[in-house]
Design goal:
Blueprint: H1 2-16, H2 23-38, E1 51-54, E2 57-59, H3 63-85, H4 90-112, H5 116-125, H6 127-137, H7 143-172, H8 177-180, H9 190-203, H10 212-219, H11 222-246, H12 248-275, H13 280-299, H14 304-335, H15 353-365, H16 371-386, H17 391-413, H18 429-447
EC number: 7.1.1.2
Keywords: Electron transport, Membrane, Mitochondrion, NAD, Respiratory chain, Translocase, Transmembrane, Transmembrane helix, Transport, Ubiquinone
Membrane topology: Multi-pass membrane protein
Length: 454
């Protein structure tokens, strides 16, 4: 872990002394080496114990896939942003890459720490660079309002978590994940346990806590949307898994029964909202809320089966949602609009992009044998095993997810060509490479999903 952190700091130093003409090549090459270094942590997935423990940092089968996902998407994100930033000054480009690399450093610390206070500090530290990405490189004037939503939702939900961690430390005299797993935390009251999980429910987010997410996604640049959907939202799921292990008795007896029902029906309602969206990025953002709501319902069952399925969902959804936001940015660059009805007929413009839309739309709806389907089968089985009545919202969620995912594909790849979008431009090699880098991990997970079962 220390090696990954210092390597990322070295990349930040190197890009500030790199000439403008070599900035993108150097940053992409060095961050790609970060992927190779992080892949060594795959060896730890065969063990149920912590490894590489040092300075309150370590890896286990839960955080290793998330660390690798974070490292994988950093060079992909930089590659996706080149076209948007080519006309900016050298200073702007350096700041942009530096912010992305600061995010990866914070994520490595957050996912690998064994201390709850360090986890909280990392959890909140991602707010600053992400806020700068949204407000500085956002697409429209409403990005300032989106930044306000992002800040206030995150800060207001984090205050109860911080207070709860202080009380937990006062009760147990330590905040170490590993030690607290062996301690008896049954004396923690239900209000304190509820406060501990509120921040994660907002960060994931589930239905009812999600109002900041569509605004942030719609106004963020492509790099901000990809990082937000693929990595930052998974911090909430990771934190919920860790806290569920520590507070399992309080959650099981008093909170989880309500939370499972609320998340299942919240996922159905969010799927209905997706059917009414006219903005392309807003639709993809709401689909994330729907998927994450069902994932939280599975985590709330507190079974090993559900935790394994949730990890698969987090990894697969991170890759798929990032790819969908990138394709949406391609459409926006070509047509100048994200309105679905105006974008009809673009199949006459692009030759290969409809194929990518079909692949990732099918992945989004959970079509076998893609890893999304594997994770959804596991988490749905866990929730139905908890209570057979939950079969109803899950069935509705599956149907509605299929409808809006296929509708998204049909809206953008069928219909007549209109005069206002009559452009004859195909995707270039950089964009094709970015899409290949999204689907390559999915193909690996189809062959061997056990590497992220946790």
């Amino acid at each position: 872990m220390i090696t990954l952190i210092f390597w990322s700091l070295g990349i930040i130093i190197s890009i500030w002394i790199t000439p403008r003409r070599n900035l993108w090549e150097i940053s992409i090459f060095q961050s790609s080496l970060l992927i190779l270094m992080s892949c060594f942590f795959l060896n730890n997935n065969t063990s149920s114990l912590w490894n590489n423990l040092s300075l309150n940092l370590g890896t286990d089968p839960i955080n290793s896939p998330l660390i690798i996902l974070s490292c994988w998407l950093i060079p992909v994100t930089i590659t996706a942003s080149i076209n948007n930033l080519n006309n900016n000054s050298h200073l702007d480009n350096n700041i942009f890459v530096t912010l992305i690399l600061f995010i990866i450093i914070i994520l490595i610390i957050t996912f690998s720490t064994t201390n709850l206070i360090i986890f909280f500090l990392g959890f909140e530290s991602t707010l600053i660079p992400t806020l700068i990405l949204i407000t500085r490189w956002g697409m429209q004037k409403q990005r300032i309002e989106a930044g306000y939503y992002f800040v206030f939702y995150t800060l207001l939900s984090s205050l109860p978590l911080f207070t709860s961690l202080l009380i937990l430390y006062n009760n147990t005299n330590n905040l170490n994940f590993i030690i607290n797993l062996w301690n008896n935390n049954n004396n923690i009251n239900n209000i304190l346990a509820s406060f501990c999980i509120i921040a994660f429910l907002v960060k994931i987010p589930i239905f009812g806590f999600h109002l900041w997410l569509p605004k942030a996604h719609v106004e963020a640049p492509v790099a901000g949307s990809m990082i937000l959907a693929a990595i930052l939202l998974k911090m909430g799921g990771y934190g919920l898994i860790r806290l569920s292990n520590l507070l399992w008795l309080n959650l099981n007896l008093n909170i989880n029964n309500f939370l499972i029902i609320f998340c299942c029906w919240g996922g159905v309602l969010t799927s209905l909202i997706c059917l009414t969206q006219t903005d392309l990025k807003a639709l993809i953002a709401y689909s994330s809320v729907s998927h994450m709501s069902f994932m939280v319902a599975a985590i709330s069952t507190n079974t090993n089966w559900a935790i394994s399925g949730s990890i698969i969902i987090m990894i697969a959804h991170g890759l798929v949602s990032s790819a969908l936001f990138f394709i949406a940015n391609i459409f926006y660059e070509r047509s100048g609009t994200r309105t679905l009805i105006i974008s009809r007929g673009l199949k006459n413009i692009f030759n290969t992009l409809p194929l990518w839309w079909l692949i990732f739309s099918c992945a989004n709806l959970g079509l076998p044998p893609l890893p999304n389907s594997i994770g959804e089968i596991i988490i749905f089985s866990s929730v139905i095993n908890w209570n057979l009545i939950s079969f109803l919202p899950i069935s509705l969620g599956i149907i509605l997810t299929s409808i809006f995912s296929l509708s998204l594909y049909l809206y953008l790849n069928s219909g007549n060509r209109f005069n206002w979008n009559n452009i004859n431009i195909n995707i270039n090699e950089r964009e094709s490479l970015t899409l290949v880098l999204h689907i390559l991990p999915l193909l690996i997970l189809i062959i061997n999903p056990n590497i992220i079962m946790g």
